[in-house]
Design brief:
heterodimer; A: about 400 residues; mainly beta; Spore Coat Polysaccharide Biosynthesis Protein SpsA, Chain A; UDP N-Acetylglucosamine Acyltransferase, domain 1; nine-stranded parallel β-sheet; 41 strands; globular; B: about 600 residues; alpha/beta; Glutamine Phosphoribosylpyrophosphate, subunit 1, domain 1; Rossmann fold; eight-stranded antiparallel β-sheet; seven-stranded antiparallel β-sheet; about 35% helix
């Protein structure tokens, strides 16, 4: 069976972390989200994959190439303009050769169980659904038995806690649905299906598998925590005498963990990093390739992307640090409950640090308040205090 | 400079050979041919690129065969001059990469003996020589034939009714891939990767008999040699285009990862003192050809700045014939493939002159890696596009690492400087990504270069060689005449050539030469030449005096060649694309040049 992965969109609500890559290429547990999706499909024997790509597709194509490295065979279909997932699917249609197929959203963290359950219980057009604690962010599903009778995207009033995971099984005879003129409009697959729940039977499969979607930057830490469950334990780099590694800790090739470091897993550290001496890293933290963390820093529950340079005496808690962020000594980012505004919505978050976009340069003794979102390429001068939302390339003096 | 392949096993040989040839096309692509041992020998060859003539090649049954893709050296590209060559009896067939220097007297001899030649090539004498000596043993006949020739070769031959492919090499690469019940030979390991990752590199002067069941290896004296195979860690998909329009574009985008890989472990090793052993040193010589020589010229500025060592750069093809006075103890040879004939010869010459040799190369197991005293691998991964991109950028990284090592060794850099520089090197993948994020701006800005017949590239200091490389890239793939110039030399000649139809690309970064560069750009603009400036983001002064400006991230000036190079690669790429050129395989060029 073939699978279509819809990975053409940017994931704007995750800005600034989608500045130079689509959402599916954001790394959690040091691997892009899309890689977990491909892995879940391949481990269920679904190896023929069509990826619909668009926004910054170079990053996807470079990573997956023809799929051989992932034991899959991957073809690419290009969606030049963001015209919605239904249009994306219609582009992939001609490559399906009349076979039944799966559709998977290219930006959600999934595990193999979701696919296993779908393959085992599918009958006709089938959607995988899951329970969610915060259904209002997603598409909520109304069901009668296992038949879907309603689909509401991001409902404003509470109508249920069963949500659409964006994973479908499509029998090939249903493909004609997608040759309708509706596809020439900008539509999502869910929108399209919600208009036809009364005529078309859509079954729901409830899975015990795990599904996680980062909608906003502060959701990334959760996804990262789930990803760290998939990462094994192993030290390829050098751990100097006097460094303590507890629990599942992964250290990539060419990385040096200097003396006096204390690292408590689950933690994964990429290749070619230089950590310490005397750095404390607590769960659940991912550190990308080529990262440098200078002495006496404290990192707890963070997602630090590649080539970031974190100065000495830094305190970082529950924060997301983008690629190539450079912070001088004494950056202070505590986590706490806070109120964040995004898209004219207000979010009350219980425990969160800061979110710093790629290539931002931070001077020494900077304090960043909980919930802050700093855009990409900003410059923050020495000794200032930052809070709120900073646009890309802002300068703070 | 050509690519050869051979296969013997259980599959349809013609399919395996064509797949292998596709991967070797970077070595030459003006004609293609295959010979298959079926009931009788079948032969097909023609002029043109493989993709254009592939459909005409008959799919003969047959489990053994040899194939060839040509880059003409002796005899123009034509059907008759294409390999394989067959003898007068139609039983012996052979492919060859290299040059037979005494082919003219040999040809005369053979013609006098009654052999009929069908081509203008030097290679054809080999097959007639084999015919002369053939007494039922293909291997003996090949050895006897090779004993008569002067020159260089990698050669594969087979004889009708014999289930062996016989091969030999001298100064041209040849590698045997070991499968199960099947074996393969090729000029380059990339052609074998679909079959196996266990390979035997033939060393200088070695020959071999290859059958489906095994490989027998002989040294130059004819003694049997036993050697364990090498396992290659590259996979086939490292060499696939994976959705990109051209290999060159893919390889440009692979540069952040390539830089990461080239630094991996090396930064640690620099501290540990690896790469160059502690030695008394008072000067350094760098030797290279083509793009590698530009990396070496950048290396000169780096080593002089970091290690305060007088450094000279020479072209390999010139160095070999120089009198070699006052040579220092360390000669650094830079070659992507490790097979470039001129650089290999220079390495041998340097050792004869008593120098310690350090090879900077991308290819593990290449000839130079075996012949030099020390090797620094750039770890760029396989590069398919003829125009060097990621191999060049990783050569630059090698130069920084060598500069750091020499500077540490000579204590011209203190610990803080070393630490700061290595921190900056860690950020290099980000600076390159920063340029790639702006590819569409560059695509837009190059329009002024597209219709040009001549373009000048100007830079100063460490970016003078970088602009030479930028000009070379444009020449190679867009066929526009481009010249790199040190901006200070402008008034000593090239200014006379500038007018409104001759655009100038000028690099002006934030270093001590910036003011002078701004002055030079004004001089150019005063001659009506359109100027494409490359400068640090937010440089209003530069923006004001140029017709278009591409910005690069601000980095310490010694590291400025890295982001600048990536801009220049994208300029060349987009110009070539807009001019409709064959980007991955420019006319008349081949990737690693194993002829002198």
């Amino acid at each position: 069976m073939k699978a279509v992965i819809l990975a053409a969109g940017e994931g704007k609500r995750l800005r600034p972390f989608t500045m130079s890559r689509p959402k599916g290429m954001i790394t959690v547990g040091n691997r892009p989200i899309l890689e977990y999706i491909v892995e879940a499909l391949v481990s269920n024997g679904v190896k023929d994959i069509i990826m619909v790509v668009g926004y910054r597709r170079d990053t996807i194509m470079l990573h997956f190439q023809d799929g051989k490295k992932f034991d899959a065979s991957i073809e690419y279909v290009i969606q030049e303009k963001p015209l919605g997932t239904a249009h994306a699917l219609s582009l992939a249609g001609p490559r399906l050769n009349g076979e039944d197929f799966l559709i998977v959203a290219g930006d959600n963290m999934i595990d193999a169980q979701l696919i296993t359950d779908l393959l085992a219980k599918r009958s006709g057009l089938t959607m995988v659904v899951a329970e969610s604690e915060s259904p209002s962010k997603y598409g909520v599903v109304k069901m009668e038995g296992d038949r879907i009778v309603g689909l509401v995207e991001k409902p404003e009033i509470q109508i249920g806690d069963i949500i659409n995971t964006g994973i479908y099984y499509f029998p090939h005879k249903m493909v004609e649905l997608f040759n309708m003129p509706a596809f020439r409009k900008e539509l999502g697959i869910t929108q399209l299906l919600s208009g036809m729940v009364s005529e078309v039977e859509i079954r729901a499969v409830k899975s015990i598998g795990r599904w996680n979607d980062a909608v906003y930057p502060w959701d990334l830490l959760n996804v990262n925590t789930q990803a760290l469950d998939f990462t094994g334990q192993g030290v390829k780099g050098t751990v100097e005498t006097g460094a303590v590694l507890k629990g599942p800790v992964n250290v990539g090739a060419g990385t040096r963990i200097r003396s006096g470091c204390y690292i408590e897993g689950p933690v994964t550290i990429g290749e070619g990093c230089d950590i310490g001496p005397n750095v404390v890293i607590l769960p659940s933290t991912s550190i990308g390739n080529g990262v440098q963390i200078e002495p006496f820093s404290f990192i707890s529950h963070c997602l630090i992307m590649g080539n970031a340079i974190i100065g000495s005496h830094t305190h970082l808690s529950r924060s997301v640090i983008g690629d190539g962020v450079r912070a001088k000594a004494g950056l202070f980012v505590p986590s706490d409950s806070c109120i964040v505004r995004a898209e004219r919505e207000v979010f009350q978050l219980s425990d969160v640090g800061a979110h710093i976009g790629q290539d931002t340069v931070i001077g020494s003794r900077v304090v960043i308040s909980p919930g802050t979102v700093v855009g990409a390429g900003c410059r923050i001068e020495d000794g200032v205090r930052v809070s709120g939302n900073l646009e890309n390339k802002s300068v703070v003096v | 400079m050509c690519g050869i392949v051979g296969y013997v096993g259980e599959r349809m040989a013609v399919d395996v050979l064509l797949d292998g040839l596709k991967r070797l096309e970077y070595r030459g692509y003006d004609s293609v041919g295959v010979a298959i041992a079926s009931e009788e020998l079948k032969l097909f060859k023609d002029k043109g690129e493989l993709s254009k003539i592939e459909a005409q090649i008959p799919r003969w049954e047959g489990k053994m065969g040899i194939g060839h893709t040509r880059w003409a050296t002796c005899g123009r590209p034509s059907k008759n001059n294409a390999h394989p060559f067959i003898d007068c009896t139609g039983r012996i067939v052979l492919v060859h990469n290299g040059i037979i220097e005494n082919h003219i007297p040999l040809r005369k001899q053979l013609e006098d003996e009654g052999h009929v030649f069908t081509s203008e090539t030097d290679t054809e004498v080999l097959v007639h020589l084999m015919e002369r000596y053939y007494k039922g043993d293909a291997y003996a006949a090949l050895m006897a034939a090779l004993s008569q020739v002067l020159g260089t070769y990698a050669v594969a031959a087979m004889v009708e009714g014999d289930d062996r492919i016989v091969v030999a090499r001298k100064e041209n690469p040849l590698v045997v891939g070991l499968g199960v019940g099947e074996n393969m030979v090729a000029s380059d390991v990339t052609a074998l990767l679909n079959l196996t990752n266990r390979v035997l590199y033939l060393l200088e002067g070695e020959s071999a008999i290859v059958t489906a069941g095994g490989v027998t290896l002989f040294d130059a004296e004819g003694n049997k040699v036993r050697r364990d195979p090498t396992t290659v860690t590259w996979t086939v998909d490292d060499a696939e285009k994976g959705g990109f329009e051209h290999f060159m574009l893919k390889e440009i985008y692979e540069q952040p990862a390539a830089i990461h890989n080239s630094l991996l472990g090396s930064l640690d090793e620099i501290y540990a003192g690896a790469v160059i052993p502690d030695m008394e040193i008072n000067s350094v010589k760098l030797v290279a050809c083509g793009s590698s020589s530009h990396a070496a010229m950048v290396g000169k500025y780096i080593i002089e700045a970091m290690a305060r060592l007088p450094t000279t750069v020479e072209l390999a093809s010139e160095y070999r014939y120089s009198p070699g006075t006052g040579e220092g103890p360390l000669t650094i040879l830079v070659t992507q493939s490790g097979e470039t004939a001129d650089t290999l010869a220079a390495a041998r010459e340097a050792r004869q002159r008593g120098c310690r040799t350090l090879a900077v190369t991308n290819l593990v197991g290449s000839t130079i890696s075996r012949e030099a005293d020390h090797v620094f691998y750039t770890n760029a991964g396989p590069e398919i596009s003829v125009a060097a991109t990621k191999s060049y950028i990783t050569q630059l990284m090698a130069m920084y690492l060598l500069g750091l090592r020499l500077g540490t060794m000579r204590q011209t850099l203190d610990r803080t400087e070393v630490r700061n520089l290595s921190t900056e090197l860690r950020s290099m993948p980000r600076y390159v990504s920063g340029v790639l994020d702006r590819a569409s701006e560059i695509e837009e800005a190059v329009n002024m270069l597209v219709p040009a017949h001549h373009v000048f590239y100007l830079g100063r200091n460490i970016n003078y060689p970088t602009m030479l490389e930028g000009a070379l890239k444009l020449k190679e793939i867009s066929y526009i005449h481009a010249e790199g110039y040190a901006a200070g030399e402008l008034k000593h000649g090239p200014l006379a050539l500038l007018d409104a139809t001759t655009p100038v690309v000028a690099a002006c970064v934030n270093d001590h030469t910036r003011e002078k560069m701004l002055g030079n750009i004004s001089e150019v603009a005063a001659r009506d030449s359109p100027v494409l400036g490359i400068g640090v983001e937010g440089d209003r002064e530069l923006e004001a005096i140029t017709d278009a400006m591409i910005s690069v991230p601000k980095v310490p000036s010694i590291l400025s060649p890295v982001p600048l190079t990536v801009v220049l690669q994208l300029i060349a790429y987009y110009v070539a694309k807009k001019r409709g050129c064959s980007i991955d395989r420019p006319r008349n060029l081949a990737k690693s040049v194993t002829v002198e």
